[in-house]
Structure formats: C-alpha cells, structure tokens
Amino acid sequence: VTYKVSVGAVALEHQRGVFVCFEDVTAFEQVGQMRRDFVANVSHELRTPLTALIGFIETLKGPAKNDETARARFLDIMDDESKRMNRLVGDLLSLSRVEAQERVRPTEVMYPADLIRTAAHSLNALAKKAGVQLETDLPEETVSMVGDRDQLRQVLNNLAENAIKYSGAGSTVTLALTGPKYEPRLRAQAVRLSVLDTGQGIEPHHVPRLTERFYRVDSHRSREMGGTGLGLAIVKHIINRHRGRLKVASVRGQGSCFTVILPVA
Ligand code: ADP
C-alpha cells in the first residue's frame, strides 16, 4: 500500500492547528507502474526486429555486398522481421482502439453463425497450410444478438488463428455456436462461441495470465509462429465491451477450449 502524506497548518478564528492527511494512492501507483511496464515491453518488442534489420542492412552494405546467396537469405529474414513489426504496430493500434471503445455499447443486430462461417472460410487456407482440420458446429435455428460485428470477427479470428498455430499438424479445430440460454454469472440470456482444438493444451498455472499484454506460454514458439503476444489482450477488451466473459478450459496434451459467452441483448 502506498500513502501520500500531506502536512499543513490551519488557522480557524481563535484556534490554530496542524493537519496530517494520509491519502491511499496505491491504485494510482499501480496504473503508473503498468503504463511504465507496457512502454518498456513495447520498446523491447520493437527493438528486437529493428536490431535484426539494422544488422542485416549493414552486412548487406558491407561484407555480403557481392554474395548473391547470402543476399537472398538475408532479404527473406528482413522481410519476416519487417512484417513482424507491422503486425505488432497493427495490434497495438487495435488494442488502443478497442480500449477507447470499451465504454461504448455496441448496437448492431448480428448473426453469430455468419461470423463463424466467414471466419472458417477465411482461415481455411491457413489451416490447410498447417495441416489442421477446420470444422464448424452450428445450431439449426437462427440465432441473433446485439454486438459489434467487426470486433467479434476479430475475436473469432484471434482465437481460431491461435488454435491453428499452436495445435500443429494432425489436429482438429472446431468453431462452435450454442445458445441462447440463461447464464447465471451474466444474469442474462447468452450465446457461446467456442474454439476447440486437439493441440498441446496449456498448463493450468498459465491460464489466468493468458489475456495479459505480451504474456506468452512459450515465447520462442510464439515468435516463431509470428505472434505479437497481444491477441488475447485484444480479445479480452472486446468481450468486456460486450459485457461478456471468456472461459478457458485446457488439458495439457489433449487440447484447449476458449469459450466466449456473450449476452444476446
Ligand atoms: P500470441 O501472439 O503469442 O499468439 P496471444 O495473446 O494470442 O499471443 O496468446 C498468448 C499465448 O497463449 C500464446 O503465446 C500461446 O503461448 C498461448 N495460447 C493461446 N492460444 C493457445 C492454444 N489454442 N493452444 C495453446 N496455447 C495457446
């Protein structure tokens, strides 16, 4: 706990005195610390690809000037690193946009089954390339809800891309929709959008921290897969805006299930 202590003198008619004021500034300090950590993390994440780019440019201008093979290889690496920076800046912008909108209630009437169909369609190529089977499981009846279509599309994309990336060849990823049904914790009728995978799963102690910015279970693997470490932080803010919640169930070695529970109205 951090206190701010102020001391002063007071004069009231015939009386004089001093006052000592203790102000609990713990929350304020924590926000300041979080901001400083975030800036340090962003700088570190940007510096890594930037250092690689500077190094390769210098090598290409100097020692590898006339080496055709090295040139092609270095250009490929530079291509990867600059794309990584671009993704990071894109995710940082998304994060700041969703944070700014968090208090604005969404008003669009939309159909979550359409979102799943669109996500499955657009992720088909990625899944194929990764050797992952992508399936959908949708209810017969039409389900509608109030939400922000673009943001919820981003939620599904981030979750499904993770499932495909981290599960690996031979696994199955299912995008499912159920409900609406009464959710006691939200005290509302809600739908459930689930992304299930049969991949490596996540150790239980990591689960509560997954939506923290830049938190990764395996940093090396995340970077190798082109991750920015911001995907689930963005997901969390969008779900908060929709007054919903994210439930993560995972068994190491068997797979994970990320369920987004969203009130329909
Ligand atoms: P990243 O850009 O690293 O993927 P995210 O915020 O999207 O960042 O995810 C945070 C971390 O959670 C990932 O680095 C990964 O370790 C873990 N993770 C997310 N989804 C899954 C999944 N379906 N299976 C296993 N691990 C996952």
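^ adenosine-5'-diphosphate complex. The two ends are 40 Å apart (CA to CA). Helices lie at 26-61, 68-100, 112-130, 149-167, 219-224, 231-241.
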